[in-house]
Amino acid sequence: MKNLVVKLGAAAIAATVMVTGAWAASAYPKNKPREQDWSFAGPFGMYDPAQLQRGLKVYAENCSACHALSRVSFRNLADLGYSDDQIKAFAANYEVEDGPDDFGDMFFRPATAADAFPSPFPNQEAARAANGGAYPPDLSLMAKARAPIRGFPAFVLDPFRNYAENGPDYIYSLLTGYKDDVPEDVSVPEGLWYNPYFASGTALAMAPPLFDDMHEFDDGTEATVSNMAKDVAAFLMWTAEPHMDDRKQLGFRVLVFLLIFAALLYLSKKQVWSRVEH
Amino acid sequence: MSKLEHHGTYTPTTGVGKWIDARMPLPRLMYDSFVAYPVPRNLNYAYTFGGILSIFLVIQILTGVVLAMHYVPDATKAFDSVEHIMRDVNSGWLMRYMHQNGAHFFFLAVYLHIFRGLYYGSYKAPRELLWILGCIIYLLMMATAFMGYVLPWGQMSFWGATVITGFFTAFPVIGVPIQELLLGGFAVGDPTLNRFFSLHYLLPFMIAGVVILHVWALHVTGQTNPTGIEVKSKTDTVPFTPYATIKDAFALIVFLAVYAYFVFYMPNFLGHADNYIPADPMVTPAHIVPEWYFLPFYAILRAITFDIGPITAKLGGVIAMFSAVLVLFIVPWLDTSKVRSAVYRPWFKLFFWLFVINSVFLGWLGSQPAEGVYVALAQLSTAIYFGFFLIVMPVLGLVEKPRRLPNSITEAVLERSAKTDGASPPLGDPIAVADKS
Amino acid sequence: MTDATQEPEGDLPTRRDFIYVATGMMGVVGAAAVAWPFIDQMRPDAEVRAAGLPIEVDLSAIEPGGTIVVTWRSKPYFIRQLTDDEIAAADTLGEGDMKEYQPAEERIAGPDAAETRNWVIVSATCTHLGCVPNIVDNAPEGWFCPCHGSVFDMVGRILRGPAATNLPLPPYVFADESTLVVGSDQV
Fold first, then answer.
1. More exposed terminus of chain B, fewer Cβ within 10 Å: N or C?
2. Whole-angstrom distance, CA of residue A147 vs CA of residue A22
């Protein structure tokens, strides 16, 4: 029964993908994220530093008013193509708390490359108080912490097409998905905003954050809501997975090595076993 | 060449070799276990998962030791320290993704290994202890995986720990004290995290210990093989090295290639997005589901929605779930068949595949909400699961008429090669053949 | 086991041998490549390296004859302002008085604008086995290591005891009259 292993393998893979992909039959989000073209998609996909720089601008000038990015340090911005001096100057725009000084008091000083992005609020309670009870989450890991269910058959196909951009697709869809005309069967609580792409309800506390032409980009990219949403989603993918480029490059080398090694082992195995009927 | 000399024995040639052999014959043990050890010549690739599993135990221990160098088991720092590993530690992301996906592939391999054992009757006499040791390894793996999943201290870690330790509250009187004993508090918290880290570090070494016993027991009885017929003469076997080593190595590298694809290209596919949210004791995630390898048991837990006499539905579910694992231990005595391998048991073969499909289906049900039609399906599927072990295995052995068995492994190999092609290499003594080539 | 058959000696390598050798080589290369990240992960990580950037020290509060301890890369450094007498005492020591002679002025520095150069910046880690020496003001003796009794002079040169070398000088630069940068020799 040589094909036992094939059958077992197929059954196991089917089990794996079925259960992981379909872990939660949820009512939300009402609309599935719309898949976008990302420079970092696929086995050879890499981040586009220009796009990440635009995304940083959107984060720094919009999102950072409410959302922290506390797992990212200014030194990490070297990945986006900035020089040490540019990073030093950029960091100096931020103030971070330090201390205690010789008198035991905490004090503020300009941030350095070694500091993380400071949070807009000192703690969760302050953030809630300033935002009508809603807590604007830290965005550092957002692109990995949000993954609406893929459903059948997408989750089976995902490993074969190497689809791993559910997170940025979700962020893009959410930022561009606000709707003014609410369907009749949906009730939106006072003070919330209807968005059919939101993962945990019909509406969320965050008002539509992006508007056309609210920024000017040095590279001439048009500041449409769609462009900005895409750039900031790509930026947040980078903040969540800063080593993705390294990972894919190393992965290619590892897989090529393993496949050649497997081929040689197969030939060796054939040689060895050619001596004996089995 | 006599039969006894067939696979050779260890004869130290150097002075140092003789000196060691007279004092502690470890090289002899290694030689007899992994070089000269005779294995049936007709093993297929389903028999390579034992070797693959031992390599995955090594991968998990090595990457785990590395992660423990950087990880901090403190409720306020655990999540941050994992992110520190992912971002700042040199090659830290690689170590973490290897460990995380390594757990998934460890379980994938162990399930294939268990299914292979069930199919070819590897649990039957005289291999009952070998099988039970394997079941113990599987239990230890489950405990290790569960406690390891708690360590990143994400939302799924926290609530998974809450739910799983909550199982124990189903037992009357002793339940709550047991839960508090496990948690070191009234809820999951710092003491829980600390002890889980300690035990997660300890258990893999206990697994390694039981693996040694497992391999020892294997080398006493020898491997089974697809025919299920015991080795009768030396022509039935080939020496472990090079035959099994090269075949195991090839299968291992192919398996590692699939693993590497997930580590490098889909590292979070098998995980859960909610575990990238730091644990929050005040907010329960919308859908708590265990990792895929626990889902069939999770479905069985939730299938019991009715009281059975004094046993509440909650307790019944917990008992059913634990029984689903423990029933594996008595499989050697449940199967009454005189024939070992499913190859010669047409009905068993059919039921085996039904059981495999049912197990996958149970896993899928475990991922669905416990409501509506899913509950009824889970109850049916649970009944089939236990029915396979408790009814099919004992009854089928008595009523089934097996196909004709070949007289020996060699005969089975001959018959098959005669069917497939006429121009096969000379048969008989594999070593003699090897020496001539 | 008797060796019934023997390969003819001097036989050319066969295709089969080539495959075996190539497979074995791949295994060795693979094992070596896998070993690297397991070693690499123990080197200082990105956060530690970033925290090891140069530090700035305000010197205005230190009187002549005073010593402070600063921390750079998690290790202590002495910053000492010498008096004229102390410099003179250091100058009296010659090659015969110490194990590793170095002229005192090579270990003394100061801001470009200052009239006199009277600052000593040395590692506060004993070159014997890594203890932190105590500060002593007994010119020309400047530091005494409590662990094994090594004695250093006012500019950190080893006078006696088990330590074999002088206290090393870190990279530093005077950014202005009262600001010292430790950890970098570039402003």
1. C
2. 12
CA gap C59, C81 in Å, rounded: 9
Rg (CA), chain A: 24
C78: Cβ contacts below 8 Å, ≥ 6 apart:
C67, C68, C69, C120, C121, C122, C123, C124, C135, C143, C156, C167
Could you count the other beta carbons within 10 Å of the beta carbon of residue B356? 20
d(CA B146, CA B209): 20
Distance from CA of C141 to the nearest CA of A (A): 30
3-state secondary structure of A40: coil
pLDDT tens for each residue of A150-199: 887 888 899 999 999 999 999 999 999 999 888 888 888 888 999 999 98
**Bridge-based pairing state of the strands C67-72 and C75-81:** antiparallel
B375, amino acid identity: V
User: How would residue A10 be classed by pLDDT, with cut points 50, 70 and 90?
Assistant: low
- For residue C10, what pLDDT is reported? 52
pLDDT tens digits for range A93-132: 999 998 888 899 999 999 989 999 999 999 999 999 999 8
Q: How many angstroms separate the CA atoms of B125 and B406, rounded?
A: 19
Which residues are CB-contacts of B13 (< 8 A; sequence separation ≥ 6)?
A: none
Angle at B171 between CA B170 and CA B176, to 5 degrees: 80
Contact assessment for residue B239 and residue B37, using Cβ atoms and an 8 Å cutoff:
yes
**pTM of the predicted structure, to 2 decimals:** 0.89
Question: What number is the ipTM of this complex?
Answer: 0.90
The structure tokens 């520095």 sit at: C109
Q: What is the pLDDT of residue B436?
A: 37
Q: What is the pLDDT of residue B435?
A: 40
Cα B305 from chain centre: 29
Structure tokens at A91: 């960091």
Closest to B145 measured CA to CA, from B192, B93, B193, B106: B106
Q: Which residue of C has its CA nearest to A113?
A: C50
**Amino acid sitting at position A256:** V
A26-77 confidence digits (pLDDT tens): 568 888 999 999 999 999 999 999 999 999 999 999 999 999 999 999 999 9
d(CA A52, CA A40): 11
Q: How close does chain C come to B8, measured CA to CA in Å? A: 6
pLDDT confidence band for C12 (50 / 70 / 90): low
How far apart, in Å, are the Cα atoms of A65 and each of A54, A131, B83, B151, C88? 17, 11, 24, 32, 60
Is the bond leading into A29 cis (omega within 30 degrees of zero)? yes
Please, what is the end-to-end C-alpha distance for chain A in angstroms? 12
Cα–Cα dist B370/A164, whole Å: 28
Alpha-carbon distance of B89 to C42, in angstroms, equals: 8
Q: Which domains does chain B have, with CATH numbers?
A: 32-288 (1.20.810.10), 289-409 (no CATH)
Cα–Cα distance for residue pair B76/B278, rounded to 1 Å: 10
Instruction: Out of C148, C149, C164, C185, pick the active-site residue.
Output: C148
Contacts of B226 in chain A (CB under 8 A): 1, 4
Annotated active-site residue C148? The verdict is yes
Residue A162: predicted pLDDT: 95
**Helix (H) or strand (E) segment spanning residue B281:** none
Residue spans of chain B under pLDDT 70: 1-8, 420-437
Average per-residue pLDDT for chain A: 89
CB neighbour burial string for C34-55, b if at least 16 within 10 angstroms, e if fewer: eeebeeebeeebbbeebeeebb
Residue ranges of chain B whose CB lies within 8 Å of a chain C CB: 1, 5, 8, 62, 66, 69-70, 84, 87-92, 94-95, 249, 431-432, 435-436
